[in-house]
Design a protein that fits this description.
This protein is mainly α and 149 residues long. The chain has one domain. The protein contains 2 helices and 2 strands, in the order E-E-H-H. A two-stranded antiparallel sheet has the order 1-2. The mean pLDDT is 92. The structure holds zinc ion (2 copies). This is B box-type domain-containing protein. Keywords: Coiled coil.
Length: 149
């Protein structure tokens, strides 16, 4: 195809240049239209990019809100757990106290000849209960927050 046989790809008039955008031979008017069209595409794309950049800020906010919600949920669960363990400790201590109170009553009820042996037995048992005693063992399972994408 010789240059003379070429026509503008868009309007079939004599082409004046090879379009920088599509490499087709086009007339001046169509070349300008192509440039305008590309500029418009660039504007649309830039607008899209800006929109997405702002969207990312919004997504950051939303993600952090979601994280906070999980955090608050965890804190609430922890408080519930702590309260439950406190009640359990209360129960264990009260049971222990009641047992000692019961022993104290029993001491008054048993025959005198059995008293020394009973005291001996209780003293041994109670000596194990001292300030160094870990009355209960306290452990925690580490809390975890996870991010997945
Ligand atoms: Zn073009
Ligand atoms: Zn043209």
């Amino acid at each position: 195809m010789s240059r003379n046989n070429r026509t503008c790809t868009d309007c079939k008039r004599a082409p004046q240049m090879q379009c920088l955008h599509c490499s087709n031979y086009v007339c001046m008017d169509c070349a300008q239209k192509h440039v305008a069209s590309v500029n418009n595409q660039i504007n649309v794309a830039q607008h899209l990019f800006n929109t997405k950049i702002h969207l990312l800020d919004q997504l950051r906010e939303n993600s952090k809100k979601g994280l906070d919600k999980e955090y608050e949920k965890m804190i609430k669960q922890l408080i519930t757990e702590r309260d439950r363990c406190e009640r359990e400790i209360d129960h264990l201590i009260e049971t222990e106290k009641q047992q000692i109170a019961q022993n104290s009553k029993t001491l008054l009820d048993i025959p005198l000849n059995e008293v020394p042996a009973y005291i001996d037995q209780l003293s041994t048992k109670l000596s194990k209960l001292n300030e160094k005693t870990d009355f209960v063992k306290i452990a925690s399972v580490p809390g975890q927050l996870q991010i997945r994408k």
